[in-house]
Amino acid sequence: MEYIAKWVEGTPQQQDAYDLRLQVFVDEQGFAREVELDEIDRTAWHLVLYAPDGTPAAVGRTFPAPGRPGTYTVGRICVAKSHRRSGLGARLLDEIHARLRAAGAKTAQLHAQVQVQPFYQRCGYTAVGSPFIEDGWPHITMQRPL
Fold it and tell me: ∠ at Cα 99 (145, 5), nearest 5°?
């Protein structure tokens, strides 16, 4: 299946990113809508992978880490239920990492839900510190060089 990657910062298609995030994080996982959509969304770069039928299949966002030159935060990575186990999560991260390298970033960081830590490890991330609770769920900080 051929997926099309689109960076959608500041475009009407950014709503596609929001809709998929709400579906996965709010409807499926139970996070509060107020937590999922935040002020960072206004300035973050959003990547959407579109399925051949034009529906959003995977999304993620990234932005410069405050106070950490050369480091970008990656987050809100999610894949639609009907497209899981297809390699889209790894492809999404590959596309994000390429954009970050082009922007001069040296490090990517994220807060991974503990249950998906092995996925991020396969994508080159290493855990930093101990698990902590964020928005009611166990998370762990992870980083990878770019």
Answer: 125
Q: What total of structural domains would you count in the chain?
A: 1
Structure tokens at 89: 């999560």
Structure tokens of 142? 């992870």
Rounded to a whole number of angstroms, the distance between the first and last alpha carbons of the chain is 28
Structural domain boundaries, residue 57: 4-145
**For 84-96, how does the pLDDT look when each residue is reduced to its tens digit (9 = 90+)?**
998 999 999 999 9
- Residue 4: strand pairing partners: 50
Provide Rg for the chain, Cα atoms.
14
Residues 6+ apart with CB under 8 A from 18: 37, 41
